[in-house]
Amino acid sequence: MGMNKESDVEATLSVGPTSIGMVRIYVEGEGFEIPMDFDPDEALEIAEEIRAAAERARGTRGGAKRGSPAPRRDRSR
């Protein structure tokens, strides 16, 4: 399934630390459960990817051209 293909699948997403120092992303829906464990550094990389995708998605709303870069916020302060 591609990123732009719509889906009728409903699922619950949970994220949290495990007792062994991992970060678990847990996806549960009708008839499936997907636990995914990541070390903290991997989890931070995933979080950065999610943030970047959200910024790009925000840029596609309101008339931005498809494929144009999303505005970036200065996070150096």
Task: Report on this structure.
- The chain contains one helix and three strands; from the N terminus they run βββα.
- The protein has a three-stranded antiparallel sheet.
- A hairpin with a 5-residue loop joins strand 1 (11-17) and strand 2 (23-29).
- The chain has one helix spanning 40-60; strands at residues 11-17, 23-29, 32-38.
- The termini are far apart.
- With 77 residues, it is α+β, with helices and mostly antiparallel strands.
- It has a domain at 11-62.
- The longest helix has 21 residues, at 40-60.
Task: Describe what is shown at a glance.
With 77 residues, the chain is of the alpha+beta class. The protein has one helix spanning 40-60; strands at 11-17, 23-29, 32-38. The chain has a domain at 11-62.
List keywords for this structure.
three-stranded antiparallel sheet; alpha+beta; disordered C terminus; 77 residues; flat
Quick one: overall form? flat
Q: Structural class of the secondary structure composition?
A: alpha+beta
If you compute it from the alpha carbons, what radius of gyration comes out, rounded to the nearest whole angstrom? 16 Å
Indicate the percent of residues in helices.
25-40%
Number of helices: 1
Number of DSSP strands? 3
Kindly report how far apart the N and C termini lie: 39 Å
The H-and-E topology, N to C, reads as EEEH
Average pLDDT rating: 84
Give the biggest sheet.
Answer: 3 strands, antiparallel
Strand-residue proportion: 25-35%
